[in-house]
Amino acid sequence: MATTNFVDNVTLVEASWLNDVDATVYEKISAYTKVDSEYVDLATAVAAAEAADMPLLAVPTLDDTVEGAYLKRGFFLGHSVIGNGMTELNAFCGLQGDEYYLNVEQEVRGISYVVRNTRTVADEATLGWDFFAGQFAVTVQAGNTQYIRGNQKAVVGELYFKNPTSGSYTVQKAHNFQATIVEMGANVTLTDWYGYVVNTPVSSGTITNGYGLYILPMTGITNAAAIRISGEDDGGQIKWNDTSITQLSTNKLQITLGATIIKEDSSGKLEFDLDSRQLVLTDALVATTVGAAGAASVLPANPTGYWRVLIGGVERKIPYYTA
What we know:
This protein is mainly beta. It folds into 3 domains: 1-119 and 128-174, no CATH class; 232-277; 278-288 and 301-323, no CATH class. It has helices at residues 11-14, 20-31, 42-50, and strands at residues 3-4, 35-36, 70-71, 75-82, 91-97, 100-101, 237-239, 243-247, 253-257, 260-264, 270-273, 279-281, 305-311, 314-320. Helix 2 packs across helix 3.
């Protein structure tokens, strides 16, 4: 059966949304998120919403099944006070959605928004125009006079896994945020792609402590890591301008410091590739005396060569011999 979303029909009620009655009608139409396409006018849509088989602003229960194996509550607007609902806390909510889904066999999205973009004339050469599919902001107004203890959070991703009424269950995977490119045409070039960007704060005030990424202790987890990278070689590296740390495909770690490479070789030995540069030992522990003679063989008169190192800023030559 064809369906439509009556949130698209906001223009039908905006002009008359001047009192509480019209606001309530708008609220109910917005909440009724999946209705037959035969509801082509406002009156029919309102009648359908009024005749819904559960109160639109009531908390849904598992006994109220609807077509498509979902239970309806949908969205409703207007700074509603909610308690023990989707946020698990008492809160004011400008736009709230609360739905149950039962035995669905397709992807479910609480909110889905697409911004489509086409240019047929040249974009501005020095500025260009950004597109935001979703933008969230918290603003502390200029009239604020008090010390604010509450955490200001523009975006929060939370997961809840309820204790089962009987038995137990396992959820295989879960993550709070995901960044990916779903489609990339064969004849498209994307110059730079970043899954997550932290910009430099625009500030004329004072930021005492600032961290682009802050990870709290990972406790209560069987196998924990603050950062987990599953890639190898180029896809498994943390990179700066001239240095990097890389997980090699040989399961070895490589540290690149400009032209200097430190890594574990294929035999498990620690390898220093100094690229014909000297090893510098700063504040090295040195001595001018030795202990009693040992049982090792006497050194030959002539060594094989000398290893040039800087110890405390002074070049020294350490002899080495044939094995």
